[in-house]
From TrEMBL:
Species name: Lactobacillus gasseri 224-1
UniProt protein name: Uncharacterized protein
Length: 38
């Protein structure tokens, strides 16, 4: 199935957004874990 340029851009953008969001969540989780140790 051939995707138009716009569709490809949307897919790439959504992947980048998801990766950025997951990194943020990971950082928050690490911070929480660290504060629990104290």
């Amino acid at each position: 199935m051939e995707m138009s340029r716009r569709e490809q851009a949307l897919v790439v953008a959504s992947i980048e957004v998801r990766q950025k969001y997951e990194k943020e969540e990971e950082r928050k989780a690490k911070r929480k874990a660290r504060s629990k140790h104290i």
